[in-house]
Amino acid sequence: MIKRVLRFLVAFVLVASLAEAAEPASRYSWPFPTATSKKGLQVQMVDDALALGVKHAALNFNFAQFLAPSGAADQPGWDSEEYTYRFQRGYLEAMDRQIKTLSDHGVVVSLILLAYEPADPDLRRILLHPGYSTNCPNHLTAFNTVTPEGRAWFAAGMEFLAERWSRPDQKFGRVANWIVGNEVNSHWFWANMGRVTMEQFADDHLRTVRLAHTSIRKQSARSRVYLSLEHHWNIRYPGGDERQAFAARPFLEYFDRRAKEGGDFDWHIAFHPYPEDLGNPRAWLDKSATPDFATTPRITFKNLGQLIAFLSQPRFLHDGRQRRVILSEQGFHTPATADGERVQAAAYCYAWKQADRLDGIDSFILHRHVDHAQEGGLMLGLWTHKPGSIADPDRKKPSYEVFRLADTPEWEKAFAFALPVIGIKSWEELGR
Asked: Is 254 helix (H, G, I), strand (E, B) or coil?
């Protein structure tokens, strides 16, 4: 085990020292999947998502349910040097069922890679970042790629998953996009490694994202790796101090510079342009979303083009191309008013038209499928939830139908109600 870890560390240092990171030889090479529209959903009910006509789907993947350090020999494994890493069959097969059903129907699948704090001591040693604070609010840790053991497990897990969900026969389905962590510019809440500076977090996260990219590209030549960011652009999330959250723009500038110093690679952006007030779906009224990426406090659907303008700068291009953007999580609260469901539906119409007109954005993946009773009072779903349940679907809201028709020839008729709600006479006004 010690000899294997030493070989891994030597290889890692050699790769990190290159001026331009070389792409590893890939086991599989297939064209990146194309979708007929940007319409996507964080899927709770696969059959209903297909009935809605989704072209993109995002699914959460929890490493604490995946790794099996004490796994028996009949558990799925991945051989690396002199060690076999074991993984949880039941969790993998449950994910297979969702991924294969979706990808077999032509849906582009994005996996959100997370690590919830586990109870098992072996998993805690492997998964928990050494700086993790057990008093963090959501019990999500940054990936432990600090210790040799944690790094080796993460690399083996990523290679195993990428091989499983990149096979040409699509036996288990296909994953195209891999999102490393969640909303890392508010790291204390969603990717905890303790109280750190922006630079400390970025350097740590860069190591993890680079390792994920290298591991995935060993298996798949076309899969993409993403950074996850929320909408605080030139300000930090006000619920955290400077060692708990930071603005997205300086983080991206620093991350890009440090990535180039170690050898640039093909990373992309999974952005969350929620309205400035999560409780108010009327993003068209956002005052902190202004038309200049250098100064705007937030990037929401109102000024979404500023994200593309920022990434279009020559210094951020990779091989002469803009890094791709997926909108992997954002939704619209249903106010508890007589017109609340109508306003929520109008907010989706507005956001859809804003995202759909922008080149460089590949998908708009809505959160949520069903209202969730434990989401801080937010009711973001296309469905209501049954009273007394956490997220059992009860009734379709008006937003369900506008979502279903958004990328069909009937969109204009379905969206017409939203124009006076937003305060415009035609959708062309949004492009001015």
From this structure: helix
Residue-level pLDDT at 161: 98
- Tokens 């008093």 found at: 135
CATH for 38-431 (1.10.3210.10, 3.40.190.10, 3.20.20.80, 3.40.50.300): 3.20.20.80
Query: What does the alpha-carbon distance between residue 68 and residue 87 come to, in Å, rounded to a whole number?
Result: 5
Q: How far apart are the first and last CA of the chain?
A: 61
Nearest-CA neighbor of 339 among 270, 381, 282, 377? 282
Positions in the chain short of pLDDT 50 = 1-19
The reported pTM is: 0.94
Rg of the chain taking only CA atoms, in angstroms: 21
Q: Is residue 120 within 8 Å of residue 38, measured between CB atoms?
A: no
Residue 63 three-state SS: helix
Q: Is the peptide bond before 368 cis (omega within 30 degrees of 0)?
A: yes
Contacts of 257 (CB under 8 A, 6+ apart): none
Can you tell me the distance from the alpha carbon of 216 to that of 300, in angstroms, rounded to the nearest whole number? 31
Tokens of 219: 């298996």
Closest among 224, 341, 332, 353 to 273, alpha carbons compared? 332
- The closest of 309, 340, 303, 331 to 322, measured between CA atoms, is 309
User: Which residues have CB under 8 Å from 321's CB, separation 6+?
Assistant: none
pLDDT tens profile 26-72: 999 999 999 999 999 999 999 999 999 999 999 999 999 999 999 99
Percentage of the chain surpassing pLDDT 70?
Answer: 94
> Which residue carries 């297909």 as its tokens?
50
What is the Cα–Cα distance from 306 to 292, expressed in whole angstroms? 6
| Nearest Cα residue to 281 out of 364, 234, 351 | 351
The residue type found at 397 is K
Q: Is 95 exposed, middle or buried (0-12, 13-18, 19+ CB in 10 A)?
A: buried
Q: How many residues does the chain have?
A: 432
* CA count, 13 A, side-chain hemisphere, 276: 18
Q: Other CB atoms closer than 10 Å to residue 153's CB: what's the count?
A: 25
Question: Is residue 28 a contact partner of residue 221, using CB atoms and an 8 Å limit?
Answer: yes
How far, in Å, CA of 423 to CA of 426, rounded? 9
pLDDT digits (tens, 9 = 90+) for 357-406: 999 999 999 999 999 999 999 999 999 999 999 999 999 999 999 999 99
For 32, the token pair is 């990146």
Give the pair of three-digit tokens for residue 350.
């507005």
